Each structure stands twice: as C-alpha cells, then as structure tokens.
Amino acid sequence: MASFKPTRIQTYPKLGEKVTEDTLYWKSYKPALQIKEFGAVTKIEFSSLPPHNYAVTASTRIHVYGPHSQEPTRSFTRFRDTAYGGSFRGDGKLLVAGSEDGIIRLFDIKSLGALRQFTGHSKAVHATSFLSDGFRVVSGSDDLSCRVWDVASSVELSSFTEHTDYIRAVAPSKLNPDLFVTGSYDHTVKVFDVRTGSSVMTMQHGHPVECVLLYPSDALLVSTGGRYVKIWDLLKGGQQLVSLKNHHKTVTCACLSSTSNKLLTGSLDRHVKVYNSSYKVVHNFDCAASILSLAIAPNDSIVAVGMTNGVLSVRHKKQKEEKEMLTDRRRRGPAYRVNVKGKNFGPKQYDFLVNKPAKQHLQKHDKQLKSFEVSKALDSALEAWKRSSKPEVAVVVMMELNRRGTLKNALAGRDEASLARILDFLLKYITDPRFSRPLLTVGDIVLDLYQQVIPQSPVVERLLQRLLELLGREAELQQEFLQVLGILDTLFASLNLRKDVATLAAPPVAQGSQLQAA
Amino acid sequence: MFREAKNMVERSDIRVVRCGGSKINFRPPIISNDSRFVLCVSGDSVKVYSTRTEEWLHSLQGHTKQVTGIAFNPANHLQVYSCSADGTVKLWDFIDGILIKTFIIGSPLFALYVSKEHEGVIFLHLSKGTHHKNECFQLVSTHLPKSADQEVEAKELSVVSSHISPNPSCTAFGRGGEYIAFARKLQLDVYFFRKQKTYSFYLKATDKKGAKNAFTCIACNPTDDCIATGHEDGKIRLWRNFNHKKEYTYSTLHWHHNAVNTLCFTPEGTNLLSGGIESVLVQWQCGAGSKKDVLPRLGGSILHVSASPDGQLFCVSHSDNKITVIEDGFKVSGLIQGLVTGDTVLTDLMIDPRSKALVLNGKPGHLQFYSLLRDKHLYNLDIVQQEYIYEAGLDQFEVVKAVFDVKGSWLATVEERGRESSDLEFFLKLWAFDETTQSFVLNTSISAAHTDRIISMCFSSSEETTMLVTTAEDSQFKAWCQGADADTQQDQNFWSCDFVGSYHNLKPTNCTFSADSSLLAVSFQEVVTVWSPDTWELLTTLCQPPGQIRDLCFGRLSCSKYLLGTTTKNLLCCWNLLTCALEWSTSLEVSKLQADPLSENVAAFSYQSKHTDLFVFKPSEPLPLFTHEKVCSEKVHRAIFVPREELLNGCDERCQWLNGSQLYFLTQNMDLMTFSMATEEDRMLSSSKRLVIDDSIAVTPFYLLLGKHRQQQQKLNTPSHPAADKPQQKQSSVSIKQLLHTPAHVLPAASVLCSMFVNSLLISNTGVREEMESSEQEMDSEKEEEDSEGEMETRDSQQDLRAQGSVDEVTPKLSKAQERELKRVRKTDFSWMTGLIVSKP
C-alpha cells in the first residue's frame, strides 16, 4: 500500500537579491541608530583597542562615542573653525585632528585638553594621522603640502610638496613607521618615505582622490575617487589590480573589515557596498543621505556611517548569544526532572537500531484531500493566514481539485461568507501571472454555479463588480503590453541582419502576459 | 531498391522471439495449497513465483499460444491444468515444471474451470464463433480420458450453456459444485447439475436512479448458498434462495463508485473481497451487513483477486501488470511486478546508460526501469509526484517523453495532461543522477517550457557539456543549458533556456544531435535544418519533397557524414552533409528508424501490405545488410538497440549486425520482441541444460556417500577392464537417478521402496541375468501400458517370476491384494521415471 502523496506546493524562484552567507552576515545588523551631529560628518575612526570607542568629526567638534552609548563620552570643541580628520593613535590614548584654519591639534583622550598644536600649514588640513611608531603625525593640507610632525617637540620634521592639488587623504603604513600614502585632487596617489625625503611611488588614479586605504599587510592599496575604486599592488611597483565601478556617484570613503576580510565603500549615491576578497559586491546598505565617512569596528560589531546632512548612522550587530539562550530555555521545557530513566540512553556502537516507521505528516488540506473531502480541503487551503501569506497553497489545491474533476463540487453549495472569501481571493490574485490560469477557471465555475443567486446578495454582487473592473483594467494593460512587444519585435527584426536566424525570445514577463491575454 | 534486394537475401538463422515482460495479469493468479507458490499465466507460459520472496522460480512452457486459464487439479494439489488458445489443455507438475499430459480439444479455449465434485471433468470456455461479429461463447464440460499417453484427444464435449459472457470472471461454481452460476449482461443464470435445470434472473438495465445494472463479475460462497455479483455501477448484490424461480432475494452492498472488476469469497465463506478501478481492495464481512475493511492505494486498478486454499493469503492482480500478495492481517506482504506496458507506451524505449535497463513509462506517472537480462522489474521512478486517482474518465498527468544523456547522469522528462480538453498542462523536468542514493533526483522543473506541447527532445551527445533541445508545436525549438540564466542569479546547477530558434514559423517535428554534438538537425515539416550548437547559426537546409519528415538520424562512426531521414510519403533519404546533397533515396514506408549506438548500422522497420519488414543497412550504401520479412503483422513504432554485455563473435555475415547489440521492438499489442541468433540460442540451451543437471543432484550426505562410492568404483574399474563393468555401472546409476530425480512427494512410501533400492545397489553376480531381467522389465512395462485394468492375472504371474528372480530370499510372500497395490504404485511411477530418464540422458 503506497502512502498518500501530498500535493506538491510549487515554489517560485525569488527574483532579486540572492541569499548567501555574506548577505546573511551583513543583514544581521540591527536597524540603524541615528545620531544628529552639528554638521556634515567628515571622518569617523575607531580606536583599535577595546572597547573600540570611535571618534566622529563633524563641524567644529570631535565627539568620542563608546560602543553602546548614544551620547558622546568625550567631546573636543576647541576648534575655531571646522575640524577635519580626527584620528586615534595606535594605543587609543591620543587623538589628532586638522582644521579649516590650518592648525593641527593633538588631544589626550583622558584629559580633554589640547596637548599640542602644530602650526605651519597655510590652508585647511583635511587629513591627519599618526605614523605607526606613534611619535610622529602626518598631515595633508590644501596648501599642496604634506608634513610630518614630531609629537614630543611639536616641530615639523619634513615637508613634501609634490602634489599639485589639494591633499585630501592620508594613510600611514602599519608596518613601516616611515611610510605613508597620500591621495590628492591632482588625480594621483603617492607613497612617501620619510627617510628618503621624497615620494617613492606614484599612481595615477584618474580622478580626484577622496580616500586612500592600506591593507594591513601593506601589499595592497585602495584609492577612491570619482566613481572608481582602484586597488593597487604595491609589491608589484604600484600596478593596478582592479578598478571597480559599482557606485554611480563619487566614492568618498572606504574601510576594511578586519574579521571578514571585506572592503566597504561609501559614496555620495547613498550606498555602502561590501566587496568580498575577489572584489565582487556581496552586499549593499542604503542610507538616507550622501555618505561622507564610513568606519567599521575591528570586530565588525558596529558599522558607523556619516552623512552630509549631519546624521551619524550607527548599526550594531545583533547579539547571537542572547537569542540562543532564550530558545534553549524554551526548548528544555519544565525544569523538574521526572521519568528521565532511560531517556538519556544512547545507542551503543554495535546496537541494532530498529526505527519506528516515520509517521507521514500531512497538512490539513492534504488530509481532507486524502479522504476526498473536497469542499473542506478548499476551505482549509483558503484559511485567512494561508490566503495572505501562502496563496500558492490555495491555488495548488484548486488545481488538484480540477485535476480530480471535483472543483465544481468543491465550489458549489457555499454560503455568502465563504463565497465572498473565494471572490476576495480571486480579486487579489487573478492578475498574478503565476496564478491567473487556474484562477480564471475557478472564476468561470463560480459564475456558472451562482449565476441565478447573485442578485440576492449585495456583498457578492459588489465583489463581482470589482472583479469585472479589475479584469477590464488587466485586459487593457495586456493590450498595451502586446503593443510594446510588437514595437520591440520590429526593432529586433531590424537589428538582426539575417532574418532566418532565430528571433530573440520575448522577455518572460511579456510572454506571461501574452498567455493571459490569449 | 530495398525491396528488390530483399529477394536476393534468403532466410537466415535469425528468429523473432518474444522476450520477457509479458502480461501476468491476464487471468487470476492461483495460490498453491501450501501458500508457497503463486501461479499466473504469462503469454504462452505459466509462471511460478514464490509468495515469500516474490522471485520468479520457473515457467511451465509448452503451449504455443496465449495461455487463457489455469486451475489446480482437484484430485492432486500438486498438479495444475492450463488451457490455451492453441486448443489444448495441459496437465503439469508445477513444482518441477514437468508436463504430464496434453489433452487436445481442438478449438481455441478461453477459460478453464474445475470443481472438486466433478472429478475428471473440466469445464471450458469455447468460442462458437464462426462469424466474428457476434461471437458467441459457450461453456462445455469434458471428461478427460484416462489413458497413459502423453497426448490425448478429448473430443467428447457436452455443452452446459451455449450463451455466456466472454468475460471468464462471470462464471463461478457454487457450493460443493452443486450448481454453476453465470452472468451475461443483465441476466444471471444458475444451472443445477443434479436437477439439470437452469434458473434465470433478470435485472432492468437502469433503475430510477440511473444505476447501470449490467453484471461484471460473479462469485459463489463456498460454504453457503449465496451468489455475489458485481455490477457496472459499483454495486455488489448478494443473491439467496435462487433455487426458486420466484422467491429469490438479493441484498445490495455499495462502496465502489466504478464497475466492480472482481469478487472473491474466502475459502471459509466468511469474507468477500471485491476490487475495481479505484485500486482499493474491499473486504466485506458476510452476514455483517456493510461492515468492511479497505486497503487503499494498491496502485493500478484491480483486475483479479484470488485467495489461497487456507485463506491466509490473497493475491491481487492489477492493471499495471503487477500481483500484490496480501497476507492474513490484510497487509501487503509482497509485490510481483512485470513489465508495465498498459495500453499504450507513450515514451520511447530507452536504455539507462548506467544500469543498462530498459526504461519506458510504467505505472501512471512513473518511469519504470526493467532489466532485460534478468527479465525483472528493477524500480519505478516517480516523475509526476502526485497522487494518482484511480477513477474512470479522469485526465491526469502522464509521462509522455523521456530522454537520457550519454552518460546517464541526466534525465529529462515531459509530463502532460489535458491533451483532449483545451487546457493543456505540461511540465519539463530535469533529473540529476545522485551517486549516493543511486537514483535520479529532481533538479529543475520548468512549468511553461513552451507555449504548446513538446513534440520531441534530445540531449547533446558530447561528454563535456550537456544540452537539451526541445521542439514544440508552438513552432519553436529551445536549447536548455545548465546554469546559463544570469537574470535570476540562481545557483549554477539549474537548467534554463539558452536559445530559442524557429524556421519560417513552421512546426518542428524532430530533432537530433550528431554523434559528436557538433551539429543539430531539426526537421520542420518538409525541411531539415542543420544548426551549429556552438554559435546557433543555421548552417544549411535540406529538403526532399513531397512528404513531411518523420524520423531523423545521423550516421555514426565511419558514416558520420550522413544524415538519414524518412518522410511520410514513403521515402527514405540519405543526405551527405559534406556536399549537402542527397546521396541516395529509396521508396520505403518506414515507421521507425533506429540507429545502433555502437556501430554504423541503422534499422528501419517498414510497414507494407499488413506486415512489418525489417531492413538493416549502413548509411554509406543503399543496399541492406540484412532483411527480415514479416517480423510481425502490426506497425512498429518503438525499437531500441541494447548493447550486449559481451560481444558475440558471430560467424555468419548476416548476423554480424547483432554482435554488438541486440534489437528490441515493441509491437502495437505491446509485446516486446527481439531478434535472436541460432548460436545464441544454442548457448542458452546448453547453459540451461548444465543448470538443470546441477540442480537435480542435490548435495546431501546421502549423495556424497553415493558419489564417493561411485568414484571409488570408477577408480577401481578404469584401470582394469572398463568395458565389462559398464552395463552394471549404468544400471545402478539409473536406479539411483530414478530415486533422486523423482520428487519425494510422488514417491511411494520408503518401506515399499526400500527393498527395490537395496536391490539396485546390490551387485548381481551374472551379467547375463541382469540383461535378461532388464529386457523383461521393458517388455513388462510395454505390456502394462497396453493392457487394460481388468486383466491382472497374467501380470501377477510375471511379477512373481521376476520377484523370484531378483529378490527371492529378501521379500517374504505377499498377498495378492498387497501385490496388486504395489504393482499399481510402481506402474504409476514408471511412466514418470521413464520420462525422466529419457529427458535426462
């Protein structure tokens, strides 16, 4: 005796984004937390030491936030003009920032007070950073020069004026304390060595460079500018590895996720894109405004995005452990221990296991189909929650009933409420190209069955009226589609040189509509 | 050209033989007394299956036409009668598969009934029909003549009823064989043997509710005077008191919603089993009203139900060539599955490249894998994956197309429904072979592959890329590839459409890839288009009007530059693809063109003047290698070359095309036929003989002892003087063989046999006497056969003489009656043994 085969619910391919591990990973962030700053957020940087505080440079202040605080734990407001490029020292104890007035200030995180001021730049300093030894600061300025300062003595150690336009990006090497990279609006990226006193490498980005980024190994360099993100191989003498063009406006910022080896870029087009190690976009965040700055915590727990409208958007990663704890407790059931005897017995290696025959679990409508209760099966497939969330179940049951030749029986003899339910369903899904064919037969049968009694019920009459309008609209739409299709066909035909070679397939949507119109 | 050539080739030693997979559901199966064996008719033989293991044990072969009925000999439960359309009734020992007797009746027989009360009488179903239109069936009884001959003519037929239903399940014997009931259309007749009187009962054709009352089957309660009849509308009527003309009564049971196909009472008469199209076996409790058990979803509508004599086992035979064994607790305990051909085979015949099994559509919605070598059903692959509703007149999904790729790692199937009605639904499914489960797993299901039904499809035959091409009635052909769809960004291992092609909006009919997959030929009515699958460029078109292209096939190996095509207007064309010109053509009505995958040969089945001829040829030359006239009388639409397990070294030139692979074809009667060579048959025979000898000598301690003894004797004898000892050696071995070869249950009691056996082992002192005795024995037996029962004295004296001669000291004097008894025992035995000895030299 064969077991009953349940009706097979057809799964339809989900169009759009494909679910991969990456999307799951990047989707596991909580909804963004919005913090209003005083002006456009130009720079965000995380401290490399836990608890990974982050410094946010906006307008004339630099705020330092803790990982879970919405209020700044520290704020540095001693700027006369707009502050730029607040960045931490490697040990997270000092913070350096440039400003519109050309003065570079050095702060102690603990004491709030300014420790040093480096004066010498004649124009705004947009990029500042500590070199990896922690004793020197490098700065890039709009006066076309970049300078190296000594922290202890606050004197200028060296100055490079090789760029011919504003310098807007500086990135120090993490391994060599004498190397740093600058990016400028003169479309070039230069690698400087303090020891030689000049640039050792120059790369042509082709667009004004907004941001430069060195990989932790110093082997790869990322530069962003214009719509392009370019990756350079420093070990091969600055050869371009890839050029990515995934944004449709200027790419303003980039950062690296250290744990998952991903590159993130933010752009004025309001998107943050996540690239995997082979530089394919694996995920995309949307933001409310154009993005100026972007940073990710060293353990990926926070993604902070700064925007032109002065909003700092912070996304926290969902805490997995909490959830598991909760579900664990629920699963364990009551805490008392009775009748545990034998239940914790596991089979030994040589035991012969006799499995219980697995009981076939059937859905409600399948059970009713099995016992040939057709009307009930249709009712249970049209249950309220299924109707809205799983319309394919109801449609499959209708098709199955049609195959069995009992659809008419199932639809017949219904009262006003249940008939209205069916008509509601038809109204909702009859234009869906996936379901329209079986639902049209259902509609036909309903009309045949209830022709005489329709005037008795105003509810049903109203629904039918709506159905008529809907179908009329749909027919017009189909006609338009066909017209477009005809235009396209002529276009394709004129494109194809050899006519007898196959005509191109019409797009699937149009095909579906053709069917429906027929 | 072909026709002329045909005359030159004379008949060869290649025969058309029916091979495996004949119907086992033609007549009700019967279960042996000990419930160990189930017998069923299967084509021109009777097959014996084991009920426990469901294995096919052997078949009783001897009839020349369809066997139409089997029944156990009521006098001996180890013997079975079978009747056949060749006009004979044969009596078999079914355990050993020995033919005991043949009764020649003369006219074709359609069914056979026996009853315990009518010993020596069998009842047969004959066709009276001289005129074909209203063929009349009659039930006759015949006394089987008691003679010792192998073949006996039984001419004395006495008609019981001259007007019965052609359906053999409409006749049944009543309690204790007192009466026989038969139904025909709306009439139920009961014939009482003792009164020699027939009572007839009539039903109206329809009643008020529109029920159809025609009888479909009948069964009689073996312990009670009660007749159960099944009707077309699914009702079962239980008739009682039918030995009165007027006062008969009946009650009605109704569960089936379609015609009741079969009814069967359990031997105790407590339960009634019924089955119909619904594939549900219903067990009614007699006398308990409509109390019933049901056993649903047995698969295939039920044709026959039979119960074992002890009532512990039921056998249900189904329309899909299957016998279900149902044990006591009303549970299915076994399945015997034959090759399912049904009424139509919708798919082509295919060979699974991995298992080398024949694949075709089997039970509804499934593909069946059938091993031709072992003549055994391997498994069913569920294609439709939907509950099949067994109901008359329901249009459900059927597998209509299936095709394997070269390596057998992909299977493409098309299922459709609603071809008659307007709403056609069909699915194209692609199945991947899963190494771990060793079966096919659904990979992709495409719901609207084309806008109209798919006509043909084929896989590309190259090893590295698999591509499927489908042609459909929407005048397009489509190429499908794995993971080509960039729009949906699905995983790479799903199939999607790669290319859509058409040619002047003509309907494509056939498509085929060349052997190296570099060319695709698609026929559009009269035109053959040749495409390059790499660039999808139309390379050339070939056309040979008039007539649309029916079949297409590329030549293989050395003939790969040829493309063969057949048209509806009796033309077989061969194009040369290098010159793009017609190489040759011949006027031949080809119904099926099949290329051998292992050689250049192409087989063409041609239907002309009411019979089918076979031509085997190479595309390079327009002369056939081999022709076979009158292969069968119907059109052949399905054929397949099956690669052999091992290559045969054919000696004859004309048989060489059969060396690498064997050609199977399916007739319109759904018989699977093949061509077999003489050499092959010889080999089969010799192997079977060897097998028989091996089987017959069972390795028992007794045998080992004897064998050792004999070996010792041989060792002793061979060096000295073998010639002198030979007769004696033979004599002893013959008697041992007699003993060993006769089944234990037909041997007389051991006490009777013992003395004879011991005697046979004794070494007699004189060879002369031995010879004398043996000649005497022969004479004796001849006389015995001639003599009638009455004359006993003469033989008794002879018996005395011989007894004295051989065992005078050992046997004490027996009384006359005792001796007669012994004599009879030995006489019955003797024919057996001689038969045995003759058959096994």
TrEMBL record, chain A:
Cross-referenced SMART domains: WD40
For this record, the Gene Ontology CC terms, alphabetical, are: nucleolus
Q: Which residues form the U3 small nucleolar RNA-associated protein 15 C-terminal domain?
A: 346-491
| Major site of localization recorded for this protein | nucleus
Read off the InterPro entries from this record.
U3_snoRNA-assocProt_15_C (IPR018983), WD40/YVTN_repeat-like_dom_sf (IPR015943), WD40_repeat_CS (IPR019775), WD40_repeat_dom_sf (IPR036322), WD40_rpt (IPR001680)
Q: Where are the WD repeats?
A: 118-159, 160-202, 244-276
Q: Which UniProt keywords apply?
A: Nucleus, Repeat, rRNA processing, WD repeat
Q: Which CDD domains is this protein grouped with? A: WD40
State one Pfam family annotation: UTP15_C
GO BP term (any one): positive regulation of transcription by RNA polymerase I
Function, as annotated:
Ribosome biogenesis factor. Involved in nucleolar processing of pre-18S ribosomal RNA. Required for optimal pre-ribosomal RNA transcription by RNA polymerase I. Part of the small subunit (SSU) processome, first precursor of the small eukaryotic ribosomal subunit. During the assembly of the SSU processome in the nucleolus, many ribosome biogenesis factors, an RNA chaperone and ribosomal proteins associate with the nascent pre-rRNA and work in concert to generate RNA folding, modifications, rearrangements and cleavage as well as targeted degradation of pre-ribosomal RNA by the RNA exosome.
What name does the UniProt record give this protein?
U3 small nucleolar RNA-associated protein 15 homolog
UniProtKB/TrEMBL annotation, chain B:
UniProt keyword Repeat present: yes
Indicate the principal place this protein occupies in or around the cell.
nucleus
Q: Does the keyword Transcription apply?
A: yes
Domain of life (superkingdom): Eukaryota
Name the UniProt key words of this record, in alphabetical order: Nucleus, Repeat, Ribosome biogenesis, rRNA processing, Transcription, WD repeat
Q: Which Pfam families match?
A: Beta-prop_WDR75_1st, Beta-prop_WDR75_2nd
Where does this polypeptide localize? Nucleus, Nucleolus
Q: What GO biological process terms does the UniProt entry carry, in alphabetical order?
A: positive regulation of rRNA processing; positive regulation of transcription by RNA polymerase I; rRNA processing
Coiled-coil spans in chain: none
The stretches annotated as WD repeats are: 60-102, 208-239, 253-285
Q: List the GO terms this entry assigns under cellular component, sorted alphabetically.
A: small-subunit processome
Report the Gene3D superfamilies cross-referenced here.
YVTN repeat-like/Quinoprotein amine dehydrogenase
Q: Where is this region: Disordered?
A: 713-734, 768-821
Q: Which residues form the WD repeat-containing protein 75 second beta-propeller domain?
A: 349-670
Task: Indicate the transmembrane segments per the record.
Answer: none
- Compositional bias segments (type: Acidic residues): 773-791
Q: Give an example GO molecular function.
A: RNA binding
Name of the protein: WD repeat-containing protein 75 second beta-propeller domain-containing protein
